[in-house]
Amino acid sequence: MTDYILSDDTKAKLNRISTASIATQLYKRGLRNQFIQGVSPVAPKAERMVGQAFTLRYIPAREDRNQLEVFRTEDHPQRVAVETCPVGHVLVMDARQDASAATAGSILITRMAVRGCAGVVSDGGFRDAQGIGELDMPAFHARPSAPTNLTKHEALDINIPIGCGGVAVFPGDVIVGDSDGVMVIPAHLADEIAEVCSGMEAFEDFVLEEVLAGTPIIGLYPCTHEENQKKFEDWRAKTGR
Length: 241
Known about the structure:
The chain is an alpha/beta fold and 241 residues long. It has helices at residues 8-14, 19-28, 77-84, 106-115, 129-133, 190-212, 226-239, and strands spanning 40-41, 49-60, 89-94, 119-122, 125-126, 139-141, 143-144, 153-158, 162-164, 167-169, 174-178, 181-185. It folds into two domains: 8-187, Glucose Oxidase, domain 1; 193-239, no CATH class.
């Protein structure tokens, strides 16, 4: 748990930053396992997914506990998580990287979108994936999966530390998702990473322009030649970056 609150300024910066840049900056700080493995967007979105983590943990289903009747109880953790994930947060699900049954479907995820959640991530599957992909809200999963979650999963704990795709996710961590996948930023580093990556993105845009113009990589990326540093400074002054 954390008292950190993602500011509008940091969120806006992260909305312009790739997961690749975030991964590099976390690596520089000794964090090498912050990329959720095995998940991809249900459908491409124009904007990145950015929000703090709200978590749901599944355990392996046991047949005597997971008949369809359990959905009639108003305190079923899956339903409660959908209704209590805060506005602007990302629901992150721990399905033990098992996509042989769904962890949610289009009705529940549509409800989250209507409520104003920032996105959803599962290291398991989603059913009705086409409908989920048509929502404006970003969603990431391992693959489509038709069987109900009760076939393999029992939703048990809400908003506790979990593992998702091999990454430790703590409630309040900052989640960023794009076409490459999903990064988990420890909450206490979010403002710093956003600030540093903003400059890094500008530099990489400059480098790409130079490469397209025929400039060799050596001495440019990383920038070890003084003339390239001067060109970058001139580029920033010209572009306002």
